[in-house]
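Hi U.,

Before I forget, here's the chain from the pilot set. I'm dumping it here mostly so it's searchable later in email.
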Amino acid sequence: MFETIVWATDGSDLADGALEHVRKLAEVHGSRIVAVHANELLQGRFGGASLLADEPDIREKLESQLGELRSDGFDASLEIRTGSQDAATPVEGAAQDYEAELIVVGTHGRGGVAAALMGSVARSLCHTAQRPVLVVPPASRVEQPAKLTTA
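Structure:
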């Protein structure tokens, strides 16, 4: 069902949590994995500079993660998109270019004012992507089972 899965990553722990879901889905469906990292550039006075100072470290981390996937038998590649637009735009563009059937992205799970002020790549993808988007919340929110009480 999913021949190609795009894993939207910024190199964060949240993105790493989403990778576990990508791995499981790719194993079940025999999918190709395309890690997409949007390297946002600053505009204005600092135009052309990466928004993240540790961009080379992120690239190295992602290459290492993809190397592990490849050694486990997955078809995995890295696509870095650079630009000044919001991160969701290049992620969706890559998904379209690779004809991906699914985008997987991690999220902080913030809502309301926090999401409005800080923005959310996951939220933006849900509104703009032309394919299904799997949004993975932080592990702490997923791993805690509901507590049942008896009267």
